[in-house]
């Protein structure tokens, strides 16, 4: 007897993720790009930073997703009076036994939603970011591992600056992607109103956390051609030394470029996206699709860029135009293995 569920083929992986998406979409209307990025983060074991005004179903999406994969879900509303122990837990004295016990905090969940992360002071932000990086918490010298899989989705409200503590660049870098969530279309909003005011929809669990862990292992085994890895390295390098890539005009707009985490995030994200699309190998379009999400929060723009209203996304588009993606490398790479 096997302890783990059977390994999936890329087709069955895509089918399973389609079923997950179908269940989520029975509750959440629209937001296709955002949903795809959440699934990419889950498969690639990365974390998401989400920016959007209130009421765009950010919480609902993650909560519904947790139900479909039978995972635990916790939501933390960040406020200025929060302290690190509110997140990670603390030691509690038991009067009956006369001993100290550990009460674990809400970070111990498969899917954690950190709502309005920029509302909490730096020491609370850093406590969460430590858990994201190390996937463990130390309380009174005792180490406790968070459950596996573990994905953090942090939200930021772009319209409020009063009483907020912006995340420092070094901490923002821990997030694999930053996704911008926009308003729904009129048609989507009509369906939203119809669903919210109509009968409640029950979501079915179509997978479990063991299957998700197996998919994550499978995601790491997806083939990424060295040419594509080189392309990721070039794109990241162009944000640091634009002149080297014939982009000298961008130099005055960039104070700092992307860190090596961007290269890793781009490759891991492209592998996850390829798997979602039913392939065991990465194509250039998988990587190109993710570049804005992986780069936008890592680029530190200069005052000149801000004065000219130049956004990180505009810089990314100029990079993509200048540095062409390689031709589809080894699109047939899985066939020899398949014949074996």
UniProtKB/TrEMBL annotation:
Pfam families: AAA_3, AAA_lid_2
GO MF, one example: ATP binding
InterPro entries hit by this protein: ATPase_AAA-3, CbbQ/NirQ/NorQ/GpvN, ChlI/MoxR_AAA_lid, P-loop_NTPase
Keywords from the named record: ATP-binding, Nucleotide-binding
Domain ChlI/MoxR AAA lid: residue ranges: 252-318
Domain ATPase AAA-3: start-end pairs: 47-177
Similarity-based family: Belongs to the MoxR family.
Name this protein carries in UniProt: AAA family ATPase
Originating organism: Rubrivivax rivuli
